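Friendly challenge for the regulars: who can give me the structure tokens for this chain first? No prize, just bragging rights.
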Amino acid sequence: MKVAIATENGFIAQHFGRCPGFTIADIEDGKVISKSFVENPGFKAHQPGQVPMFLRKQNVTHVIAGGAGPNAIANLQSSGIMVIVGVTGKVDEILDKFIKGGLKGGESLCDHGEHTHEGCNH
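First reply, four minutes later:
Bragging rights claimed.
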């Protein structure tokens, strides 16, 4: 499986579509076999659907983020990508919890103040 974790300064980013990048980890037999950081193609010029398409091309099977809008979540899920939101903490600790089966998601932490973009309705 391949996991993409929305990342900002070594921590889980609050918003999937606006994070600086993703820590992408390949996991086999309960172990990380490779891990890299890739820049978010939508970080500076965020366009609906751009980031989910990018992650599909990376063969990502799971996305972990603090939050994401309902349209982004639906877009990812329609491609067979499992989405876990409501997560906070250090990327490496969250990855370890995920591998061990102890990662629990929650409500999306998506918060943009008073403006609206990709699926977040405020």
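The radius of gyration is 13 Å. Residues 91-100 form the longest helix (10 residues). Your move, everyone else.
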